[in-house]
Amino acid sequence: MHDPASPAPSTPELLRLRLDIAYDGTDFSGWAEQPGRRTVQGELQSALARVLRLDGVQLTVAGRTDAGVHARGQVAHLDAPVDLWAAEGDRLLRRLAGVLPADVRVRAAAPAPAGFDARFSPLYRRYVYRVSDAPGGVDPLRRRDVLWHKRPLDLDRMNQAAAELLGEHDFAAYCRKREGATTIRELQRLEWVREDDHLYAGTVQADAFCHNMVRALVGALLAVGEGRRDTSWPGTVLSAGVRDSAVHVVPPHGLCLEEIRYPADPDLATRATATRRVRTLSGS
């Protein structure tokens, strides 16, 4: 019990740290910590607690990836005592590399600017989904990050269909709805390019995503690319506003979170405040 005659224990001054993270999602049950399951958050928090000798390390992440989804541009933050960073900051990356498993790495760690929030400050998240329509299947060395599609794909048709989905819409038809959460999103970029013979990369960029949105959009476009659906079909599904059983949610392993983009430092807090508002479509 604290003696009233003695000075009250002081609360250490905290510093917000930004962590840039990469991982192979194959053997993880997603980002979010779950009892009895191996997760990216769980591994990182355990490693940070060990290296920094802190109890109750809690990371806030920019995008909670699903089981099997990869990342090379993930961002998270934590608040740690200032004196601890002063003592450990220069060697933190090397020490984390020594205790983390090989399928997750912290690529950078540094004090964050004022107003920074890994979750609410981003301008956009950019994912890439990779798929191969090679007749003989995917290169065995790429089997963990490329989906094999058994039928030939037409990228021109896929890009024509994708153009109709750009902009701010209610993406309820492409999301697994969560109680109390909006499904309104601004889809800023959706396009396919050829990376190699029979290897295609679909870039999907938005201010934020709802659950399964990227993989459902890719599934709809693959149906167009193989000629099974008309180029207008994904837009028709979007307009209907309800989940369509014909939209196949593609497997997670082809998907990688490539980039989280933040505004200039003076605009971080304003962006976080704006992101927290409940969105409605213009005119609704």
TrEMBL record:
Checking CDD domains in the record gives: PseudoU_synth_EcTruA
- Carries keyword Chaperone? no
State the reactions this protein catalyses.
uridine(38/39/40) in tRNA = pseudouridine(38/39/40) in tRNA
Enzyme Commission number(s) from the entry: 5.4.99.12
Q: Which UniProt keywords apply?
A: Isomerase, tRNA processing
> Which Pfam families does its entry note?
PseudoU_synth_1
What class does this enzyme belong to in the EC scheme?
A: isomerase
Q: List the active-site residues.
A: 66
Q: Which InterPro entries match?
A: PsdUridine_synth_cat_dom_sf, PsdUridine_synth_TruA, PsdUridine_synth_TruA_a/b_dom, PsdUridine_synth_TruA_C, TruA/RsuA/RluB/E/F_N
Q: Which residues bind substrate?
A: 127
Give every Pseudouridine synthase I TruA alpha/beta domain span. 22-120, 161-263
- Which superkingdom? Bacteria
The UniProt similarity line reads:
Belongs to the tRNA pseudouridine synthase TruA family.
The UniProt function text for this chain reads: Formation of pseudouridine at positions 38, 39 and 40 in the anticodon stem and loop of transfer RNAs.
Subunit-level organization: Homodimer.
Q: Which PANTHER family match?
A: PSEUDOURIDYLATE SYNTHASE, TRNA PSEUDOURIDINE SYNTHASE-LIKE 1
Protein name as catalogued: tRNA pseudouridine synthase A
Q: Which source organism?
A: Nocardiopsis rhodophaea
| Name of the encoding gene | truA
